[in-house]
Amino acid sequence: MTLVTDAMPQVKEPYPLPLAPRPWVLSSLFAAFNVVLLLFFSGLFFAFPCRWLAQNGEWVFPAITGPLFALTFFSLISLNFSDPGILHQGSAEQGPLTVHVVWVNHRAFRLQWCPTCCFHRPPRTYHCPWCNICVEDFDHHCKWVNNCIGHRNFRFFMLLVLSLCLYSGALLVTCLIFLVRTTHLPFSTDKAIAIVVAVPAAGFLVPLSLLLLTQAVSVSSADRTYKVKCRHLHGYNPFDQGCASNWYLTLCAPLGPKYMAEAVQLQRVVGPDWTSPPNLHPPMSPSALNPPACPGPQSQPPGTYKPGKGPQGVVRLQLPRR
After folding, report:
1. Which ranges does the record mark as transmembrane (predicted)?
2. What angle do CA 282, 91, 288 make, to 5 degrees?
3. What pLDDT score was predicted for residue 102?
4. Burial grade of 2 (CB within 10 A; 0-12, 13-18, 19 or more)
């Protein structure tokens, strides 16, 4: 699959104003509350109905629900602190006046200019207004974990949804079996806790199953949850490589190096002995004559540029893997 990049000057290129960052305190507290909620209901389940079943010789229930809880908790924490595919800020030498076009499977994509991060976004890259970052292969912003879902952590998201479905179903089935086997016993704390755990487990199981089904269809067709990203495809998706290949590229293919690791090297502070490099822009490029000012760390010494890593201030384009 080939990827060709073209650039041509343009006199004026209107672009939207930078998005203001959203308040992050409440969203972070909500994500922490979800982790506490998982630990709270799991503690009730293992301390009361699951304990009663284990004491009566039914060890198969804790043997199944225990690993499922560990998998769910691991995927939730991993998704909370994962890198969705953050693209570092560009250089002041880049500007919105130059039009960049890339080709993916004979389909042209005009790279949109991000006024906040100061670079032309690769295809399927979106600037998240909640996180105030550009995310490669953006799918959506998940408020449950207060993190974006993108190229680098989509497999953790799928693992979390799948483990939550299995864990919720296991909790519901175990609580129902416990209530059935204790019908001859008087009402007790164990029964009350089993009902308290079974109700939210049943409530979460249905939407989680629908979400898992929706994401499975999306992966099979190499589509995105963010609907605006596909408005220009007109029924043809150049990123679709077949159902089996789409699943492999999404869940098993190597992720490649992190962009942020390269950004730390590219955007280090320039010493006083640094001299201005020669003009690397085309002669007719307006951005070389009047570069716009952009916030954030932008100084990039010429010694850090290496062939094959892309020009200074421009993110090296890669094919999306979903």
Report:
1. 24-47, 59-81, 156-180, 192-213
2. 25
3. 80
4. exposed
Q: Which residue has the tokens 């150049």?
A: 238
Q: Per mean pLDDT, which range of 10-19, 81-90, 144-153 is the poorest?
A: 10-19
Size of the chain, expressed as the number of residues it contains: 322
Among candidates 193, 195, 202, which has minimal Cα distance to 172?
A: 202
* Residue 52 in tokens: 């009663």
The number of C-alpha atoms within 13 Å of 204 and in the hemisphere containing its C-beta is 22
Compute the distance between CA of residue 185 and CA of residue 56 in angstroms, rounded to an integer. Answer: 14
- Residues marked active site are found at 142
User: Which one-letter amino acid corresponds to residue 272?
Assistant: P
Read off the tokens for 42.
């799991």
What pLDDT is attached to residue 98? Answer: 76
**9 near 289, Cβ under 8 Å?**
no
Helix (H) or strand (E) holding 127: strand 126-128
Cα Rg for the chain, rounded, in angstroms? Answer: 25
Both tokens of residue 37? Answer: 């909620």
> Which residues fall within 8 angstroms of residue 104, CB to CB, at 6 or more apart?
1, 3, 123, 238, 239, 319
Which residues are 86's β-sheet partners?
135
Provide the mean pLDDT of the chain. Answer: 76
Q: Give the 3-state secondary structure of residue 87.
A: strand
Task: Record the tokens describing residue 193, joined without a space.
Answer: 């806790």
In the beta sheet, which residues pair with residue 147? Answer: 142
The pairing of strands 140-142 and 147-149 is antiparallel
The conformation of residue 304, written as its DSSP 8-state character, comes to G
Residues 6+ apart with CB under 8 A from 81: none
Please, are residues 125 and 87 in contact by the beta-carbon 8 Å criterion?
A: yes
Going from the C-alpha of 306 to that of each of 32, 169, 252, 256, 297, the distances in angstroms are: 41, 52, 29, 17, 20
CB 26 within 8 A of CB 112: no
d(CA 118, CA 95): 7
| Pairwise CA distance, residues 260 & 49, whole Å | 47
Q: Residue 40: which of 197, 171, 206 has the closest Cα? A: 197
